[in-house]
Design brief:
By secondary structure, this protein is mostly helical. Strand 1 and strand 2 form a beta hairpin. The strands form 3 sheets. Strands 1-2 form a two-stranded antiparallel sheet. Strands 3-4 form a two-stranded antiparallel sheet. The chain is globular and about 60 Å long. The protein has one domain: Alpha/alpha barrel (Glycosyltransferase).
Length: about 400
C-alpha cells in the first residue's frame, strides 16, 4: 500500500527464539541513547521450564472451558434485535461478535447472523457504522464504532458485507486528521463534534481496521477509487506519542495517549522538562499499530516499545494505570504479542516468562461463574473506560484467550 514501509525482513507472525530475542534486546534501543541507557536495556535470557509458545494441556482445557462458559453467558444476553448491551454503541456488539466467532458455541452461526444484522442496521448514509447521539460530547463515537464494526463484519467472511466494509473504509479514511499540528495523522472519536482531537487509542483501532479489511479493496468495481489512509502521516503521529530516551528510563520507548492528555500522569525529566508517563495498554496499542503499519521489526520505534513492555511486565495491573482499563490491557497485549510473534517476555534480567501461560492463568482465575447457570463472565470493579460493562469486558477477555 502506498506510504507503508514494506521492507520488513522478518514477518511479524514468525516466532522469535530465545537466542534471537537476546540479541535483539542487547541492541541499542535508540540512536540517541547514552551508553548507560544502552547497558540498562540489555536482558540476559535463560531457559524456561515451561515450553515457550504452548500451554500445559490441563491449562489449555481450562481456557477452552472458560471460553465456553463465556460464550454461554453472551448467548443468554443477546437481545432480540441481535445487539449486546447498549444499542447506541454498536461497537459493543461488534466486539461480542468477534468473540463469538472465535468460540465453538453450538449457536455461534445464529448469534453471528443476528449480530451482523444489527450492525448493518446502524450503517449511516456517510458509510460509517454508528448511531447519531446529538449533543453528546464525542457524538456517537463514529470513528471508534465504525472501525470495530467493520472488523466484526469482515470476520464473518460473508461476501454480502463487502460493500458495507468498503464504504466504512472510505468513512474511516476520511476521518483522518491532516491539520498542521501535533495531532496530524491521527484519528479521534468523532471528527464532527466537540471531541474532534486525535489520540493513540482511536488511531490504533483505525489502523487495525484498515489493515485487516484491506482485501476488500480488490473487490471494488473497475475504475472506482480505492480507500486508504495516509500511512506515512499515521506512523509519524504514532511516533510523536512515543517517549524518547530523554524522558527517562521509566518512560523511554513507551507510549502516551495524545499530545495534551496524560492519562497516566506526568513527570519531570533530568532537564526539567515535563513528560507524559508511558503506560501499559497504550504502549501495546502503539506497538500493535506499528505492526499493522508494517514498520520493520528492527526499527528503533518497534524495538524500544517492546523493550519498555519487557521492563514493565506485569499482569497484576495495567502498568502505570493500576486497575483502570485492565481488561483492555489484557486484550491488546494478547493481540500485540501474538502479532509480534514472540513467545517469551524477558524480565528481571535473566528470566523468561511464557506470556501465554501467565495470561491464561490470570484470565481463568478472574472469571466470575454464575451459581445457577454455570455461565461465566468478566467484569472490572473499576468502571473507568466502561469496564464496569460485563459484555465489553467479557468480549475483551474471550478475544484475548482465543489468541492463545
Amino acid at each position: 500500500m502506498k506510504g507503508r514501509n514494506m521492507t520488513s525482513r522478518y514477518p511479524f507472525g514468525v516466532c522469535v527464539c530465545a537466542a534471537t530475542l537476546a540479541c535483539s534486546l542487547a541492541m541499542n534501543i535508540s540512536h540517541s541513547a547514552t551508553a548507560e541507557e544502552q547497558a540498562s536495556s540489555r536482558v540476559v535470557v535463560t531457559s524456561s521450564a515451561q515450553p515457550l509458545g504452548s500451554l500445559d494441556p490441563s491449562l489449555a482445557n481450562e481456557v477452552r472451558a472458560a471460553i465456553n462458559r463465556a460464550a454461554d453467558w453472551l448467548a443468554a444476553r443477546q437481545q432480540p434485535c441481535g445487539a449486546w448491551s447498549d444499542t447506541n454503541f454498536p461497537a459493543l456488539t461488534g466486539l461480542a461478535l468477534q468473540a463469538i466467532l472465535g468460540s465453538e458455541h453450538p449457536a455461534r452461526n445464529e448469534m453471528a447472523e443476528k449480530a451482523a444484522a444489527f450492525i448493518v442496521s446502524c450503517v449511516q448514509p456517510d458509510g460509517g457504522i454508528y448511531t447519531k447521539i446529538p449533543g453528546r460530547k464525542g457524538g456517537g463515537l463514529s470513528n471508534y464504532n465504525t472501525a470495530i464494526c467493520m472488523m466484526a463484519l469482515h470476520a464473518t467472511r460473508n461476501p454480502a458485507y463487502t460493500r458495507i466494509i468498503q464504504n466504512a473504509r472510505t468513512f474511516v479514511a476520511g476521518a483522518q486528521y491532516l491539520g498542521d499540528d501535533d495531532y496530524r495523522g491521527g484519528f479521534g472519536y468523532d471528527r464532527e463534534t466537540q471531541r474532534a482531537y486525535t489520540d493513540l487509542l482511536n488511531t490504533y483501532y483505525a489502523v487495525e481496521a484498515m489493515s485487516k479489511t484491506a482485501d476488500v479493496e480488490d473487490k471494488r468495481p473497475a475504475g472506482e477509487k480505492r480507500a486508504d489512509i495516509d500511512w506515512n502521516e499515521t506512523v509519524k503521529f504514532i511516533e510523536r506519542m512515543q517517549n524518547k530516551p530523554s524522558s527517562g528510563p521509566d518512560n523511554a520507548g513507551g507510549f502516551f495517549y495524545n499530545p495534551t492528555d496524560p492519562k497516566a500522569g506526568a513527570s519531570t525529566n533530568r532537564e526539567g522538562v515535563v513528560v507524559f508517563r508511558s503506560y501499559g495498554s497504550i504502549t501495546y496499542s502503539g506497538l500493535l499499530a506499528l505492526i499493522h503499519a508494517k514498520v520493520d521489526r528492527d526499527d528503533v520505534r518497534v524495538r524500544s516499545a517492546f523493550d519498555w513492555a519487557c521492563k514493565h511486565w506485569s499482569l497484576e495491573e495495567n502498568p502505570g494505570m493500576g486497575e483502570q482499563g485492565l481488561y483492555f490491557f489484557y486484550n491488546v497485549l494478547s493481540k500485540c504479542l501474538a502479532a509480534y510473534g514472540v513467545d517469551a517476555i524477558p524480565v528481571g534480567g535473566n528470566r523468561l516468562v511464557n506470556w501465554k501461560e501467565e495470561l491464561a492463568k490470570v484470565l481463568v482465575r478472574c472469571q466470575k461463574i454464575e451459581d445457577k447457570t454455570g455461565h461465566g463472565y468478566w467484569q472490572n470493579e473499576n468502571d473507568r473506560y466502561w469496564e464496569g460493562n460485563a459484555v465489553l469486558v467479557t468480549s475483551y477477555s474471550m478475544i484475548a484467550l482465543e489468541h492463545l
